Amino acid sequence: MAKSTILVALLALVLVAHASARREWGQDSRCERQIDRMNLNPCEEHIMQRIQCEQDEYNTRRCGFSEEQYRERCCNELEDVEDDQSCMCEALQQIMENQMYRMQDRQMMKQFERELRNLPQQCRFRAPQHCNLEFNGGKF
């Protein structure tokens, strides 16, 4: 338990450093500006709700309603990058980075990645073909 907590804390620290370095190197500043203006919280909450509802089958009725609200709000935010596969991928990467501190274990990271990869299809957008959601050489 303590090892996984330390591992999650280290991953979060490295993610913050990675995000800072990426911004300093100026990769596609247009996308970064677009993503910085977006509110990705509904996307993050939508995915976390889906994971929690999968684990708690007794609350599925309540889950369906709030999950749908977050999904709609998320899709509205992602519309800004719908036609730009590179920016869509960067938005997905940002969502992953934002949520790293909430991941309790490797299984939850895998669930989050799976849901994140399905997010564009849930919004009826075309999914990025080659979107790298890897971290430090290790796939979530």
UniProtKB/TrEMBL annotation:
Residues 43-131 form the Bifunctional inhibitor/plant lipid transfer protein/seed storage helical domain. Residues 1-21 form the signal peptide. It holds the Pfam family Tryp_alpha_amyl. InterPro entries: Bifun_inhib/LTP/seed_sf, Bifunc_inhib/LTP/seed_store, Napin/2SS/CON. SMART domains: AAI. The keyword Disulfide bond applies. The keyword Signal applies. Belongs to the 2S seed storage albumins family. This is Bifunctional inhibitor/plant lipid transfer protein/seed storage helical domain-containing protein. It comes from the Eukaryota. Gene3D superfamilies: Plant lipid-transfer and hydrophobic proteins (1.10.110.10). Keywords: Disulfide bond, Signal.
